[in-house]
Amino acid sequence: MSDPYKIPSKTQIGHIHLKVSDLERSLEFYCGLLGFQLITTYGDQAAFISAGGYHHHIGLNTWQSKDAPPAPKRSAGLFHTAILYPTRKDLAAILQRLIDHNYPISGASDHGVSEAIYLDDPDQNGVELYRDRPRDEWPETPEGNIDMYTRPLDVDDLLNELNK
Asked: Looking at residue 31, what DSSP letter applies?
Protein backbone atom coordinates (compact mmCIF):
# COMPACT_ATOMS: atom_id res chain seq x y z
CA MET A 1 0.00 0.00 0.00
CA SER A 2 1.47 3.30 -1.02
CA ASP A 3 -0.39 5.63 1.33
CA PRO A 4 0.32 4.73 4.96
CA TYR A 5 -2.64 4.86 7.32
CA LYS A 6 -2.59 4.60 11.09
CA ILE A 7 -5.72 3.69 12.96
CA PRO A 8 -6.58 6.34 15.59
CA SER A 9 -4.75 5.67 18.87
CA LYS A 10 -7.97 5.76 20.93
CA THR A 11 -9.62 3.02 18.82
CA GLN A 12 -10.86 0.02 20.83
CA ILE A 13 -12.27 -3.39 20.03
CA GLY A 14 -15.95 -2.91 20.85
CA HIS A 15 -17.26 -6.47 21.02
CA ILE A 16 -16.85 -9.99 19.74
CA HIS A 17 -19.46 -12.35 18.40
CA LEU A 18 -18.92 -16.07 18.92
CA LYS A 19 -20.55 -18.98 17.15
CA VAL A 20 -21.49 -21.52 19.84
CA SER A 21 -23.14 -24.92 19.69
CA ASP A 22 -25.30 -24.65 22.83
CA LEU A 23 -26.47 -21.20 23.90
CA GLU A 24 -27.51 -22.18 27.44
CA ARG A 25 -24.20 -23.93 28.09
CA SER A 26 -22.32 -20.84 26.86
CA LEU A 27 -24.44 -18.54 29.03
CA GLU A 28 -23.66 -20.71 32.05
CA PHE A 29 -19.94 -20.27 31.34
CA TYR A 30 -19.86 -16.57 30.46
CA CYS A 31 -22.57 -15.38 32.86
CA GLY A 32 -22.71 -18.09 35.53
CA LEU A 33 -18.95 -18.63 35.91
CA LEU A 34 -17.25 -15.50 34.57
CA GLY A 35 -19.96 -13.13 35.80
CA PHE A 36 -21.05 -11.32 32.63
CA GLN A 37 -24.55 -9.80 32.67
CA LEU A 38 -27.18 -11.02 30.22
CA ILE A 39 -28.46 -7.97 28.33
CA THR A 40 -30.89 -9.53 25.86
CA THR A 41 -31.65 -12.66 23.90
CA TYR A 42 -33.04 -13.31 20.44
CA GLY A 43 -35.20 -16.34 21.08
CA ASP A 44 -33.11 -19.39 21.79
CA GLN A 45 -30.53 -18.56 19.10
CA ALA A 46 -28.55 -15.56 20.33
CA ALA A 47 -27.65 -13.64 23.47
CA PHE A 48 -25.78 -10.43 24.17
CA ILE A 49 -23.82 -10.11 27.40
CA SER A 50 -21.73 -7.39 28.99
CA ALA A 51 -19.72 -6.13 31.91
CA GLY A 52 -21.16 -3.04 33.57
CA GLY A 53 -24.31 -2.65 31.48
CA TYR A 54 -22.71 -1.87 28.09
CA HIS A 55 -25.00 -2.93 25.22
CA HIS A 56 -22.77 -5.94 24.67
CA HIS A 57 -19.18 -7.01 24.92
CA ILE A 58 -19.86 -10.54 23.72
CA GLY A 59 -22.49 -11.82 21.34
CA LEU A 60 -23.21 -15.54 21.40
CA ASN A 61 -25.19 -17.23 18.63
CA THR A 62 -26.11 -20.63 17.23
CA TRP A 63 -27.20 -19.33 13.80
CA GLN A 64 -24.64 -21.46 11.93
CA SER A 65 -23.33 -23.66 14.72
CA LYS A 66 -26.17 -25.25 16.75
CA ASP A 67 -25.02 -28.65 18.05
CA ALA A 68 -21.82 -28.39 15.95
CA PRO A 69 -18.46 -29.75 17.14
CA PRO A 70 -15.68 -27.32 18.09
CA ALA A 71 -13.64 -25.83 15.25
CA PRO A 72 -10.43 -27.74 14.56
CA LYS A 73 -7.47 -26.42 16.56
CA ARG A 74 -5.21 -26.44 13.51
CA SER A 75 -7.33 -24.18 11.30
CA ALA A 76 -7.65 -20.49 10.64
CA GLY A 77 -9.95 -18.60 13.00
CA LEU A 78 -10.08 -16.99 16.41
CA PHE A 79 -7.13 -17.88 18.67
CA HIS A 80 -8.68 -16.45 21.82
CA THR A 81 -10.88 -13.75 23.24
CA ALA A 82 -9.00 -11.56 25.72
CA ILE A 83 -10.96 -10.17 28.66
CA LEU A 84 -9.17 -7.30 30.39
CA TYR A 85 -9.69 -7.00 34.15
CA PRO A 86 -9.27 -3.57 35.77
CA THR A 87 -7.01 -4.61 38.66
CA ARG A 88 -4.66 -7.38 39.74
CA LYS A 89 -7.02 -8.18 42.61
CA ASP A 90 -9.89 -8.65 40.13
CA LEU A 91 -7.75 -11.09 38.14
CA ALA A 92 -6.90 -12.94 41.34
CA ALA A 93 -10.61 -13.15 42.24
CA ILE A 94 -11.59 -14.75 38.90
CA LEU A 95 -8.65 -17.15 39.17
CA GLN A 96 -9.82 -18.20 42.63
CA ARG A 97 -13.36 -18.63 41.27
CA LEU A 98 -12.09 -20.91 38.49
CA ILE A 99 -10.13 -22.94 41.05
CA ASP A 100 -13.16 -23.15 43.38
CA HIS A 101 -15.31 -24.42 40.50
CA ASN A 102 -12.63 -26.87 39.31
CA TYR A 103 -12.69 -25.25 35.87
CA PRO A 104 -9.73 -26.40 33.75
CA ILE A 105 -7.04 -23.78 33.21
CA SER A 106 -4.76 -24.36 30.23
CA GLY A 107 -2.06 -21.84 31.12
CA ALA A 108 -0.91 -18.87 33.18
CA SER A 109 1.69 -16.44 31.87
CA ASP A 110 3.54 -13.29 32.78
CA HIS A 111 4.08 -11.25 29.60
CA GLY A 112 5.90 -8.36 31.25
CA VAL A 113 3.20 -5.93 30.12
CA SER A 114 0.42 -8.13 31.50
CA GLU A 115 -0.46 -11.19 33.55
CA ALA A 116 -2.78 -13.75 31.98
CA ILE A 117 -4.82 -16.86 32.73
CA TYR A 118 -5.79 -19.09 29.78
CA LEU A 119 -8.72 -21.46 29.45
CA ASP A 120 -11.26 -22.67 26.90
CA ASP A 121 -14.98 -22.01 26.85
CA PRO A 122 -17.39 -24.96 26.40
CA ASP A 123 -16.94 -24.80 22.59
CA GLN A 124 -13.14 -24.87 22.92
CA ASN A 125 -12.85 -21.17 22.01
CA GLY A 126 -9.73 -19.84 23.71
CA VAL A 127 -10.27 -17.31 26.49
CA GLU A 128 -7.57 -15.13 28.04
CA LEU A 129 -8.36 -13.42 31.35
CA TYR A 130 -5.74 -10.77 31.99
CA ARG A 131 -4.73 -7.49 33.56
CA ASP A 132 -2.30 -4.95 32.18
CA ARG A 133 0.54 -3.67 34.29
CA PRO A 134 0.76 0.13 34.52
CA ARG A 135 2.44 1.51 31.39
CA ASP A 136 5.46 2.77 33.33
CA GLU A 137 6.19 -0.83 34.45
CA TRP A 138 6.32 -2.31 30.95
CA PRO A 139 9.74 -3.77 30.18
CA GLU A 140 11.71 -2.12 27.40
CA THR A 141 14.62 -3.07 25.19
CA PRO A 142 17.75 -0.91 25.33
CA GLU A 143 16.37 0.85 22.21
CA GLY A 144 13.18 1.79 24.08
CA ASN A 145 10.81 -0.71 22.42
CA ILE A 146 8.30 -2.76 24.42
CA ASP A 147 9.94 -6.04 25.45
CA MET A 148 7.09 -8.53 25.82
CA TYR A 149 7.93 -12.05 26.87
CA THR A 150 6.21 -15.20 28.08
CA ARG A 151 7.23 -16.53 31.48
CA PRO A 152 5.35 -18.64 34.01
CA LEU A 153 2.91 -16.58 36.08
CA ASP A 154 3.50 -16.62 39.83
CA VAL A 155 0.00 -17.86 40.64
CA ASP A 156 0.58 -17.92 44.40
CA ASP A 157 1.68 -14.28 44.36
CA LEU A 158 -1.37 -13.38 42.28
CA LEU A 159 -3.73 -15.17 44.68
CA ASN A 160 -2.07 -13.34 47.61
CA GLU A 161 -3.77 -10.18 46.24
CA LEU A 162 -6.97 -11.51 47.80
CA ASN A 163 -5.43 -11.20 51.27
CA LYS A 164 -4.48 -7.53 50.90
From this structure: I
d(CA 50, CA 58): 6
Query: Which of 135, 113, 19 has the alpha carbon at shortest distance from 69?
Result: 19
Contact by Cβ (8 Å): 136, 145? no
- For residue 106, CA distances in Å to 12, 47, 98, 111, 126 come to 27, 26, 12, 16, 9
CB neighbourhood size of 129 (10 A): 22
DSSP-based three-state secondary structure for 121: coil
E-strand spans in 43-106?
46-50, 58-61, 80-84
Q: Which percentage of the chain shows pLDDT scores above 90? A: 91
pLDDT of residue 59: 97
Taking the CB of residue 25, how many other CB atoms lie within 10 A of it?
15
The answer, as to whether pTM is greater than 0.70, is yes
Q: How many CB atoms lie under 10 A from the CB of residue 55?
A: 10
Distance CA 115, CA 77 (A): 24
Question: Element (H or E) spanning 91, and its range?
Answer: helix 88-100
pLDDT digits (tens, 9 = 90+) for 99-119: 999 999 999 999 999 999 999
